Here is the input.
Amino acid sequence: MVTHLSKIKSDHRPLSLFFNPKLKLPRGRPFRFLAGWVEHPDFEYFVSANWNFRGNMADALAEFTSYLKVWNKSVYGHIISRKKILISKLADIHWRMNFSGSNHLTQIKMEVRLELENVLHHEELLWKVKANVLFRNLYGEDPGPMGKLPASRCPRLDSVDKYWDTVGGAVYFWVKAVFNGRNITSDLNNTLVVLIPKVSNSFRSISLCFVLYKLIMKVIANRFKSVFLKITAHEQAGFIVGWNITDNIITAQ
Here is the structure.
């Protein structure tokens, strides 16, 4: 590891080389909305009870995220740990049923099995979130397009589509404020760059941005569509809606 030391007498900064450095790498993972949360029966109530927008979108998201992290640990729980516990319980019940065929054990077995199936369902959703095959277009435009967004398409830094009735008013307010001159703060312009193996032996960088930021960009892009039709030539098919760049071959012929 190489570090620059402070200048003392010379106008050059000396270099310090560490051959066995103890690197302190940042721990933890960036917050991302999990598709499994929307399947939880209490999550809709949690959103309506804890979403509090007072004019500042960044503050509202930060406050809600802090509540959501606590809820994820205390209510939603760690899926893998819960699965192991339930499998162990089910195995213990099966062992007991070898010596006793009581209806009580049968009832407990059914309850544990149903809970395990629910946990396995959430685990499946979690792995779908992690699966690269689900990395597609997850953004839409203003309220109408937001209503068309797929609810559990892929991982994202935030999610506003599923509970539009609760957060829609805040999104309306924020979008109008941005187009009236308010700056998009850095908290809402964070980008998570990930490497996705789209083709064999080749990782492509994909940027995961906030849905809110992409919402603004989509509105601007849609407004430019009508302008592009007037300023682009037929040979520039890549800029014309409904055209493909390969259409230039037909035009040339």
